[in-house]
Amino acid sequence: MMQSVDIAIVGGGMVGLALAAALKDSELRIAVIESRVPDSELQELADVRVSALSRSSETILRNLGAWQGIVDRRASPYMAMEVWEQDSFARIEFDAKKMAQPDLGHIVENRVIQLALLEQVQQQSNVTLFMPAQCQTMAIGESEAWLTLDNGQSLTAKLVVGADGANSWVRRQQDIPLTHWDYGHSALVANVWTQEPHEKVARQIFTPQGPLAFLPMGGSQMSSIVWSTEPSRAERLVAMDKLEFNKALTAEFGARLGLCEVIGERFAFPLKMRYARDFVTERVALVGDAAHTIHPLAGQGVNLGLLDAASLAQELTTLWQAGQDIGTKRNLRGYERWRKAEAAKMIAAMQGFRDLFEGDNPAKKLIRGIGMQLAGQLPGAKDEIMKRALGLKGDLPDLAKYSLSSTQL
Ligand SMILES: Cc1cc2nc3c(=O)[nH]c(=O)nc-3n(C[C@H](O)[C@H](O)[C@H](O)COP(=O)(O)OP(=O)(O)OC[C@H]3O[C@@H](n4cnc5c(N)ncnc54)[C@H](O)[C@@H]3O)c2cc1C
User: Does residue 301's CB lie within 6 angstroms of at least one atom of ligand 1?
Assistant: First the structure.
């Protein structure tokens, strides 16, 4: 059976669902096609895939009605951040109270974000969910695109949105070239119990091998770690027996929170920078990891993706209200320019960090130390860094702007 919609969103992860939710008040008919149904049961031990959500992401999720669903399930606010370098005087601290902020962000399991958004989208009369279903073919015509799904269903849409992650099927179907490079790191993720409480502080140490972050989770002694290191070392760390791993982790973190004990599984993900040459082609737009992926060292990947979703929703609503075709490359150029510029700035910043902290050359180390001290002491510099991390800077879509109604929950 052929179904006709205005927008077919391929990928019902955090970003694809945020886009569908951001179009809740529009007349646009939307299909969301997602290959995996997320398990709605949360285990006592948190998932290892978590995200540090910035203030702008929180505002978007509040405006989409999903924030309460996140908080009700599980979210861990962090009130301060400490960043330092191994064997050096380089160190910088940020404190929510001193910056007149309620917190510096929240650590949330990716599945929790997805479930809270799904709950909203399921209530929208303008959305049809195809879940589980996978796209099999895509053909682009003059005024619409055709999709066939593995369950035998077919769709036509004025616009197909690729929200299908780093290895985007939609991007590959369109042969959109990718600028990419290897960060030379894999990120090991795991849940870790620490001897000392984290006191709701997010911590990151830079070592010559890469950054190691301890993100505070619900229990006062539980953290989610993101340990970026050389890929073969990451593989060894995943395969190592637990006692040996605990020793290696405690040593790498300088025993900052006392002894560490890994709880549950460890996974490692190879880290690549990816930047699609086009975020938009005729009848196709890319959002989130389908358009760009960055190093997780500043925890900005999904924050950037949620801003893509909010920006695209805004552009589509404007086009629709003006009676314009929502699927032409020409009409979507505004979205492309906007989000390519923001993604490029973030990629450059991540590369700058990555290069600055690489290696243990003494001159570089000195510069890092002086730089961090200056940033900590210069009036306004710390505020500026934090505003960027909170996502309060840059060209924000309306859904990410601070509003009175968004402070109610
Ligand atoms: C180790 C690590 C730590 C990170 N930490 C942070 C952090 O602290 N903060 C932060 O902001 N970001 C972080 N990120 C980045 C963040 O995880 C990603 O940016 C985010 O998951 C991207 O969301 P997405 O919805 O675009 O893609 P995904 O989460 O990959 O979702 C894509 C969805 O599409 C579905 N799909 C794929 N192909 C098809 C198809 N053909 N048909 C139907 N469905 C399909 C998939 O099942 C999936 O549900 C981290 C990344 C890594 C690797």
Answer: yes
> What is the Cα–Cα distance from 113 to 76, expressed in whole angstroms?
13
- d(CA 54, CA 228) in angstroms, rounded, equals 21
pLDDT at 190: 98
Integer Cα distance of 289 and 275 in angstroms: 9
Exposure b/e, 97-114, CB count within 10 A at least 16 = b: eeeebebbbbbbbbbbbb
- 189 in contact with ligand 1, CB cutoff 6 A: yes
Which of 348, 346, 338 is closest to 285 using CA atoms? Answer: 338
> Which residues make beta-bridge pairs with 107?
52, 76
Q: Is 273 in the pocket of ligand 1 (CB under 6 A)?
A: no
Mean pLDDT of 349-370: 69
DSSP lists the bridge partners of residue 3 as: 155
pTM exceeds 0.70 for this model: yes
SS3 state of residue 201:
strand
> In a 10 Å sphere around its CB, with 0-12 CB exposed, 13-18 middle and 19+ buried, how is residue 380 labelled?
exposed
The ligand 1 atom nearest the CA atom of 288: 26
Report whether residue 353 contacts ligand 1, using a CB cutoff of 6 Å.
no
Summarised one tens digit per residue, pLDDT across range 371-393 is 666 666 666 666 767 777 777 77
pLDDT of 241-288, one tens digit each? 999 999 999 999 999 999 999 999 999 999 999 999 999 999 999 999
Question: What mean pLDDT value characterizes the chain?
Answer: 92
Cα(289) to centroid(ligand 1), Å: 6
Task: Indicate if ligand 1 lies below 6 Å from the C-beta of 350.
Answer: no
